[in-house]
Amino acid sequence: MSNLIILFMRWLCLLSSIYNAKHIAHGSTMGESTRFYDFKVQTKRDTKLCNSKDIVTINGMFPGPVIYAQEDDRVIVKVTNKTPFNVTIHWHGVRQRLSCWYDGPSLITQCPIQSGQSFTYNFSVVQQKGTFFWHAHVSWLRGTVHGAMIVYPKAGVPYPFKFPNEEHIIILGEYWLQDLQQIEKATLASGGPPPKADAYTINGHPGPNYNCSTNDVYQIDVIPGKTYLLRLINAGLNTENFFAIANHNLTIVEADAEYTKPFTTDSVMIGPGQTLSVLVSANQPVGKYSMAVAPYESGKIVIYQNVSAIARFNYIGAPSDSLSLTAKLPKLDDEVAVKTVMDGLRSLNQVNVFKEIDKHLFITIGLNVEKCHSKTPKQNCQGMHNGVLAASMNNISFVNPNISILEAYYKKIKGTYTEDFPDTPPKFYDFVNGAPNTIPYDTQSLNGTRIKVLKYGSRVQLILQDTGIVNTENHPMHFHGHSFYVVGYGKGNYNPITAQFNLVDPPYMNTIGVPTGGWAAIRFVADNPGVWFLHCHIDIHKSWGLGMVFIVNNGQGELESLPHPPPDLPKC
Question: Quick check: 260 pLDDT over 90?
């Protein structure tokens, strides 16, 4: 049924583009259309894993409704908050060209939409197409407030790969029996790590490995000999995941909504915030095959949920009583499997990566342990050695301001942030193997709302370096408002003399998994004026402070300048 809905929606998308081009005056030039959506933020009673609880959703759906559009379309979404919780929506991967006010991260580009209020997001997907998703960007509401956003090529423009017989959206997630906002609040108050998820989910279904979930299983029905496009989205909060289908290869054709050279593998690792589109051929004997999701356990001190989520890749005609073949996943800490897929990601065509660099940045990322200053250390200092867990970039833990940084920047409100985020860490050392570890005396970070200002048009190279303070770990780093070329990555400490760069066909991404105990080099042009968040997409790391903000100054003229704020911009 799901594939019929997706095919129908694509047909409807194409049909409505013709209608909208004729009948919608707003934003309809050169054949672009305007898509209208109405999001109601509301709670619903959800029963999973033998328990029932209220969860926050959009329109009572988990996962939420799919947004469909075509390249260059305008998307208008009215969000009305009918819950007692603050909320914002981020359109993950959309570059928000000259529409920074609608990017969505709470207290970065807007104040949250409060209970009973509404805000209309209004943006265009300029020269973008592929698999995106939207999600809440305040507290940990993203755990249930998320959904896919599929942007098709313009009418008459084919995919650069074999046209699939069907398309399916596969959203990976995590599920907790406890209220997510209470978990975040309690975790931060404790100073210690968060509890592991109670289950992983595939399109909201945990599968038969979990209690009371024998029939709570997502299933794709396939026809022998046909080809299927699976749009994989990791909407999970705190865990990177391996994904595989028993006895079937996956051919990656798109990463982070950018086409890639086809690369075939038997499994993929996809971190929170990342999307992959893969082709799967139904070329095996008729039967039932498992789709499996398990954690990539890159953090050696992190406690993971080790029970896999299972869905079914079911051949039509398979006997109803036949057992599903088990999917073979890599070892849960298999760094080679992760690197093999990353090595295979290449832009579809040769690209022109700039070689002259205007701004060099070197930013360390990782965890910290702060000294305990609480009068109740047993309750509030449950980190290592009775400390308080934190996270930082260049040893600065990001602190959310009281009003949005974008509003403070636009209105020139002083005291909200400082423009002194450093270009390099406070000192250089063996970041991976010789990091300070006398907890908590030399593992502390500074706190602040520090930002880095970039001149419009700056050509920036940024080195992201994982550190061994507390724990080396793979960090999915997401950049708002821009995509970037991943020109290099490797294990150990970054060495500019020995580092090997790909300036011919590097992948163009918005979220990069910085390797465990390693580094990644990205290049981007700061050509989108506004305020843009760079942060780890593991939510507990973001809550602990693993983020920073860029301000891209205005260029020349209206097309290089931040527009005025919308009239219904929420107030803090």
Answer: yes
pLDDT for position 65: 98
Q: What is the DSSP string of 290-349?
A: EEEEEE----TT-----SPEEEEEEETT--TTPPEEPPP---TT-HHHHHHHHHH--BSS
Domains and CATH numbers, the chain: 30-156 (2.60.40.420), 161-347 (2.60.40.420), 359-560 (2.60.40.420)
Longest Cα–Cα distance in the chain: 69
**Residue in the block written with tokens 């002083």:** 414
For β-strands 324-325 and 288-295, DSSP reports them as parallel
CA distances from 522 to 361, 473, 503 (A): 10, 19, 11
Position 475, amino acid: H
What would the two tokens of residue 523 be? 């290049």
Q: What is the pLDDT of residues 212-256, one digit of tens each?
A: 999 999 999 999 999 999 999 999 999 999 999 999 999 999 999
Query: CA-to-CA distance for 361 and 24, rounded, in angstroms?
Result: 45
DSSP label at 425?
-
Q: What is the pLDDT of residue 20?
A: 36
The torsion region of residue 197 among left (phi > 0), alpha (psi -120 to 50) and beta comes to: beta
Phi-psi map region of 59: left, alpha, beta (phi>0 left; psi -120 to 50 alpha): left
Tokens matching residue 412? 């020139």
Among 234, 275, 224, which Cα is nearest to 252's?
A: 275
The model's pTM:
0.94
Percent of the chain with pLDDT over 70: 95
Q: What is the pLDDT of residues 410-443, one digit of tens each?
A: 999 999 999 999 999 999 999 999 888 888 888 9
Cis amide linkage into residue 425, ω under 30° from 0: no
